[in-house]
Specification:
alpha+beta, Uridine Diphospho-n-acetylenolpyruvylglucosamine Reductase, domain 2, Uridine Diphospho-n-acetylenolpyruvylglucosamine Reductase, domain 3, Uridine Diphospho-n-acetylenolpyruvylglucosamine Reductase, domain 1, four-stranded mixed β-sheet, 18 strands
Amino acid sequence: MTAAAALATAVPAVRGRLTPHAPLAPLVWFKAGGAADWLFEPADADDLAAFLAALPADVPVLALGLGSNLIVRDGGVPGVVVRLGKAFGKVAARDEVLVCGGGASGISVSSAARDAGLAGLEFLRGIPGTVGGFVRMNGGAYGREVADVLVDCTLIDRQGRVQVLPAAALAYSYRHSNLADGSIVIGATLRGTPGDRIAIQAEMDRIAAAREASQPLRTRTGGSTFKNPPGHKAWELVDRAGCRGLRVGGAEVSAKHTNFLINAHRATSADIEALGELLRAHVARSAGVQLEWEIQRVGRVNGPAAHLATQAEALA
């Protein structure tokens, strides 16, 4: 019996959609990469909880939001990829907080905050992801991060148990939380402060204009590639290393913002990841700084990715 067949017989009937060998490239911003062994789109939280509770413990689980900060490797993703749909996309205001579904986008959350007259959440307009993703990674932009506004989050753990965790339990640091692998954030409560709707909209417009002016938003990209090292900006280190416009295969460093990689010419995910490793090698050599990936890289490395190390070593 194949792994796929074994999984099919091990899980209960679901009310959502469970798809074998599901291509992931159409679901991620880079538009590259392999397929998920299984893609599960649950009907609601109960459907997801029952599925995870019945899933064999050795089957890996990965949550997928908008796919904006993700490299899916060409060999595909083992186990189950969970994608939260419309049932998890609601946002509601309650006094000075927003109760948000894990599938709600940063744009929808910031817009709901504006409509409720809640300031302090405008920065979410600049995060191209969902609540589940930016709660997990402590997403941030324009001087603020999720740790500044999170009250609590609701998750379903790998065993199918629903938990509500206060912000302090996530032990936030820069672009990191201690949430366990396989757990799925299905909701969060975010706190704002009373504000003027017109001023809130003006700040959202400023953020949108700044992103449009400085980032290659209309290309196949993955957002910020590397974390900012202490005392440095990643894009400046890459630029000073002479890497603006550098290519590997069909992947290219953006000329507009050098902390963005672009799928410019039908790049494979191996091309994109290899280019990132080249930038790390250049910066380590020129500045003595080790860049850390901010983009999450998931899945199996197959043959074409073998040049990751050799390409980096060639220029180190």
